[in-house]
Design goal:
Length: 357
């Protein structure tokens, strides 16, 4: 302290000195409490969009402050004079929160982004593939004028998949209503004899109702359950047309970096059915597995029909490249890589890139 400040302080009665010394601590604690948002209304009243978003992030992700006792020492004789409460910071949410692979469903408050925001659904990728053999039979009636234009074993395959929350807290319950869309295409890019056609494109819109779970069963965290409706078709007509509709139930679990999402579905009957035996090959459900470590994603999807002994497995490995772009390797064996091939056994391998957002 400066002499002009110390002198008046020492001249004050002894009982007032501790009170004066505690004022900076009390003011600091009061300033901290005033600056920090306490309720959602504190953030909602902020006009600037960036500041308002930062306020919501702080409110959702910052743990509650902790109050401790601080001892004020008498400056004259060094003896304890008083104790005052002091607000101390807790560890940040990033250092203490447990990472979840399933938080793209916005299951926890810190990850909720509101409605009409794009989120990842299935993988989005672009890969160059090589198949074991081509399925020429469905296209034979359309190749009479150009018999030399056989299908190529090499293709470019790409998939775009996203979802967005349409309603948050539907029906007054902890249930979110989502819309999802997935489109994957198989492009004979190097097949110049056949004019480089898109051999097949599948379209898959769906609606999903998701509710978060907080159940630990034998060390495994049950994270969410849901119901959904999905339509899948290839947009073709005549003998090339393929489509089906399903209702499904799903459950998501995770443990120590592993996650699994299991679905069971029921096919809905159609009046004009181009593929009545599709369940024999595509099964009545699937199991999606994933493991993340150090920026790498190891994934697989399995389908199997125990009555017909037919199914498929797709395995993928994504590794860091730059930012949201990852390198991607994919292998497939089984039925139903595309709708036109639902009853055709195929093996293929591909390499390319995968996007995360």
């Amino acid at each position: 302290m400066q002499p002009l400040i110390v002198a008046p302080l020492l001249q004050m009665p002894l009982s007032y000195r501790p009170l004066l010394l505690t004022l900076p601590l009390i003011c600091a604690a009061g300033a901290h409490a005033q600056d920090a948002p306490k309720v959602i209304a504190d953030c909602a009243n902020i006009g600037d969009n960036t500041a308002r978003l930062a306020c919501f992030d702080t409110l959702a992700a910052t743990p509650a402050p902790r109050t401790e006792a601080a001892v004020v020492v008498n400056p004259v004789d060094g003896t304890p004079a008083a104790t005052v409460p002091v607000v101390t910071a807790q560890p940040s949410a990033e250092s203490s929160a447990k990472f979840s692979q399933l938080d793209h469903w916005e299951l926890d408050g810190a990850y909720q982004r509101g409605v009409f925001k794009f989120r990842p659904h299935h993988a989005s990728y672009l890969i160059a593939t090589r198949s074991y053999r081509t399925n020429d039979a469905p296209y034979a009636p359309y190749r009479e004028l150009n018999d030399d234009a056989d299908l190529s074993k090499a293709e470019l395959a790409f998939q775009l998949s996203f979802k967005m929350k349409m309603i948050e807290g539907a029906f007054g319950k902890p249930v979110d209503l989502w819309f999802g869309y997935t489109q994957n295409s198989f492009w004979q890019a190097a097949n110049s004899k056949a004019s480089s056609p898109f051999r097949e494109t599948n379209y898959q819109p769906e609606i999903m109702a998701i509710t978060p779970l907080a159940i630990n069963l034998g060390g495994v965290d049950l994270r969410f359950a849901g119901l959904g409706f999905v339509h899948q078709s290839n947009g073709q007509s005549g003998s090339l047309s393929r489509s089906w509709n399903r209702l499904y139930a799903q459950l998501g679990v995770e443990k120590d970096g592993f996650s699994a999402t299991a679905r069971l579905w029921k096919r809905l009957n159609e009046s004009d059915d181009d593929n009545p035996d599709i369940v024999d090959y595509m099964g009545r459900g699937d199991l999606a597995l994933a493991y993340r470590r150090d920026g790498h994603i190891y994934s697989s999807t399995l389908r199997y029909n125990f009555h017909t002994d037919k199914g498929a497995i797709q395995a993928g490995w994504a590794f860091p490249l730059a930012g949201n772009l990852k390198g991607y390797a994919q292998a497939f064996a089984g039925y139903g890589q595309s709708l036109i091939d639902y009853n055709y056994f195929q093996r293929s391998i591909g390499f390319g890139v995968l996007g995360t957002f």
